[in-house]
Amino acid sequence: MYAQIIVDIAHSQVDRIFEYSCPDDLVKGSRVKVPFGGRTVDGFVMEVGETCSIPPEKVKPVKEVFDELPALIPECFSLMERISSRFRVPKAAALRLFLPSEMRLGKVREAYEKIVKIKDSSPSFGKTAKRQSEAYAFLKAEGECNYTQLCEKFGRSAVNALENKGVIETEKRRLHRAPFKGAIGGGQPKTPTYAQADALESIEKSNRRVHLLHGVTGSGKTEIYLRYIARQIELGKTAIFLVPEISLTPQMLSQLRARFGGEAAILHSGLSAGEKFDEWWRLRSGEAKIAIGARSAVFAPLSNLGAIIIDEEHDSSYVSESAPRYSTVDIAKMRAEYNDCKLILGSATPSVETYKEATEGRYNLITLPERINKRPMPEITIADMRSEVKRGNNTAFSAVLREQLQSTLEGGNQAIIFLNRRGYSQTVICRDCGYVAKCVNCDVSLTYHSEENCLKCHYCGARYHMLAACPECGGVHIRYGGTGTQRVVADLKTLFPSARILRMDNDTVSGKDGHFNILKRFAEKQADILVGTQMVAKGHDFPSVTLVGILDADMSLHFSDYRSGERTFQLITQVAGRSGRAGMKGNVVLQTYCPENYILRYAVNYDYKGFYENEIKVREATFFPPYSLICRVMVTSENDKTALETLKDVYFALEELRKLHPDKFLFINKMHSPVKKIQSKYRYQVLMRLKDGGLSEKIYDIAVKFNRNDCPVYVEENPANLS
Ligand code: ADP
Ligand code: ZN
Asked: Which CATH number does the domain housing residue 708 bear?
């Protein structure tokens, strides 16, 4: 037999199929080792057949077959074609997405344990063999036992003697390294409310492929996902459930564990290699049927998918930051089409792009406007920090937030203090009047670059002088960015000496259990106040939290991104949604230097529709997505000159493209990237704004043409950040 093989080298020169002779029982999807140009490389079996197009004497044999079960399911090859043509990446690079990287590089293998069982059930023991008879009695009671543990209890010689006599036997068994064993229990199925039942029925009945579950925070979206998954499992199907940050959502995890037990497997970059390997194979072998995880779990090795769910679909973590730079929703759509199953997107604050699809009828829109049991949404109070400055208050806390913290603590409840660190130390703001410097061409906030002491626009590259005084009011209290978590904790300790405070940010957490442990301690009420950055905003459900303080609510408003309004609205809604989730009323204090901003107004009233209708008009008028495509071609190299020369070539080629399609281009320019150097690589870019995605393939083709090992060139479409 002959195999058609894709070698695991992601390079355009070997991006084709090679033929080898192979054993008769080799199957499509297997990973193999093959001789290739004088060395041995890994390969993927695309097809096995009886014919071969090269002369038999020239065909080399497959050297080794890796797994008993082929690692790649047939669907992988279909997606491989689509991904490699969409993003112009070699087939091997597309296939790699389907395998945990540690597994590909052969760094991890199965783990086994030695199990002891009784073989002869009526042995006789001499008087001297006391330990042997004890070990036997123990084993009889237990049924079976781990070999090492048995030896520790009764001594290795006794155990070995029993084995030699044929009284017991040992067996090698596959060990399952399970992640997050500490996930707390709970999570019995709940009787669905009418709204939940209607939502489920709508998903079931609608003939749309994609469903948007737009439900306010606390409206019970999770129960809908879990029920839909359970139904698919009953039908003998499988499911993928994506969440932005699984290590940040222990409650979600415990609910899934409680509900589905071993049928659920977790795929997450924070797992150890062994855990990931075992969880992955449990899915591949069919032992587990539900894959839960972050972005990359969209590639879970499950056949016969019955549902794909993307919770918090608006989250920017769903955009890949390494090649190919896919959007998770796009991949999920491909898989949903292949399996003819439904894709459910859920959010309290859908992305503008998604909501547009839904309101225009391409997605099935399901709205849950109320919290479970008609619990009120928390009341949001705006604190105007400009007047605090005028009154001489230079702490990070407004008077109203201090008062509310006081009463929360007195009532024995918990509070979350959220620090908006996005755009930290980059945005320039006048503390007297709230003025923020903006680009005259692009209407986005400028970013301060300390090394050149100037302000820059990330969308057109324009440069401005740094401000000495505010051009609006002449004030000199110009400030860059916000306060740090440490400072906030210190302030809190002075204000509330007896309060127990937990801090959660990138400095305080390490390892995959770090977040988990802090959140667990907070959930167990071992602390009164949790102070944190973006990490505390995610979907936690702490019943005792009745107050959320948002410091610097406007910091993300002025982030130099066309989505800054959208991001701010999302952030405020998400953070506010942590308050008052159980019986008690929730409060939120939102501190800002620009209280009149329309985004904050909509957020305070939980008016997503109002926000959307306004935002979509702005996008249309300013030609930002979804009314255009932001496309960036990055050129990076350790050699500054190489990068710059390549940039010129790339730009020239793109200019040629523009001359052919002038009507498709709204903007094109070449420039330094905002961050000029990362990991000793110089960074340049061509930035484009295009009418639509019609030229994408041609742009990818140009990037591929200039891409070299010492000077990678790659394309990003609507990148999540432009740094
Ligand atoms: P969302 O994901 O929409 O923010 P959750 O799924 O976290 O909301 O649900 C909010 C709260 O309501 C949770 O504490 C959950 O346990 C509870 N809940 C959800 N559905 C029901 C139900 N049918 N009956 C009672 N409580 C429910
Ligand atoms: Zn001013």
From this structure: 3.30.70.590
Quick one: pLDDT at residue 195?
A: 95
What pLDDT sits at residue 249?
62
Q: How many helices (H) and strands (E) does the chain have?
A: 21, 30
Number of domain units in the chain: 4
Is the domain of 366 the same as that of 383?
no
If asked whether residues 320 and 393 sit together in one domain, one would say no
Does residue 623 lie in a domain region?
no
Full domain range(s) for residue 9? 2-102
Q: Would you say residue 146 lies in a domain?
A: no
Q: What pLDDT score does 558 carry?
A: 57
Query: How high is the pLDDT of residue 480?
Result: 66
Ligand nearest to the CA of 581: 1
Q: Is 190 helix (H, G, I), strand (E, B) or coil?
A: coil
Query: pTM surpassing 0.85?
Result: no
User: How far is ligand 1, taken at its centre, from the CA of residue 369, in Å?
Assistant: 13
- pLDDT for the residue 389: 76
- Measure 389 CA to ligand 2 centroid, in angstroms: 13
- Give the Cα separation of 607 and 599 in Å (integer): 10
Round to whole Å and give the CA distance between 76 and 299: 9
Identify the CATH number of the domain in which residue 569 sits: 3.40.50.300
144-146 sheet: strands from edge to edge: 144-146, 111-118, 168-175
Give the strands of the sheet with 454-456, arranged side by side: 447-449, 454-456, 463-465
Q: State whether 524 and 547 are in the same domain.
A: yes
User: Do 204 and 348 fall into the same domain?
Assistant: yes
**Is there a domain that residue 443 lies in?**
no
Boundary-marking domain end, from 586, 618, 650: 618
What length is written for the chain? Answer: 723
Q: What CATH number should be reported for the domain holding residue 26?
A: 3.40.1440.60
Per-residue confidence (pLDDT) for residue 669, from 0 to 100: 93
Judgement on whether residues 549 and 401 belong to the same structural domain of the protein: yes
Atom of ligand 1 minimally distant from the CA of 196: 23
- Please check whether residues 411 and 340 belong to one and the same domain: no
Residues with CB under 5 Å of ion ligand 2 are 430, 432-433, 435, 470, 472-473, 475
**Which residue's CA is minimally distant from atom 11 of ligand 1?**
218
Q: How far apart are CA 258 and CA 343, in angstroms?
A: 24
Q: What is the CA(476)–ligand 2 centre distance, in A? A: 8
Q: Choose among 597, 543, 598, 607: nearest CA to 573.
A: 607
Distance 226 CA to ligand 1 centre (A): 11
* Ligand 1 nearest-atom number relative to CA 187: 16
- Same domain, residue pair 350 and 383: no
Q: For position 693, what pLDDT does the model report?
A: 87
Cis peptide before 626 (omega within 30 of 0): yes
Which of 50, 80, 102 terminates a domain? The answer is 102
Q: What are the distances in angstroms from CA 214 to CA 246, 345, 364, 598, 608?
A: 21, 8, 10, 22, 10
pLDDT, one tens digit per residue, over 536-589 is 777 677 889 999 999 877 766 655 678 888 988 998 898 888 888 777 889 999
H helix or E strand, kind and range, residue 684: strand 681-690
> Distance from the CA of 588 to the center of ligand 2, in angstroms?
27
- 136 inside domain: no
344 and 216 co-located in one domain: yes
Q: Which atom of ligand 1 is nearest to the CA of 215?
A: 3
Q: Environment class of residue 209 by beta-carbon count within 10 Å: exposed (0-12), middle (13-18) or buried (19+)?
A: middle
Ligand index nearest the alpha carbon of residue 186: 1
* Residue ranges of the chain whose pLDDT lies below 70: 105-111, 175-187, 246-251, 421-427, 442-443, 450-451, 480-484, 506-513, 539, 555-560
Residue to mutate (ligand 1; options 224, 371, 541, 584; most atoms within 8 A of CB): 541
Give Cα separations from 123 to 118, 144, 146 (angstroms). 10, 17, 21
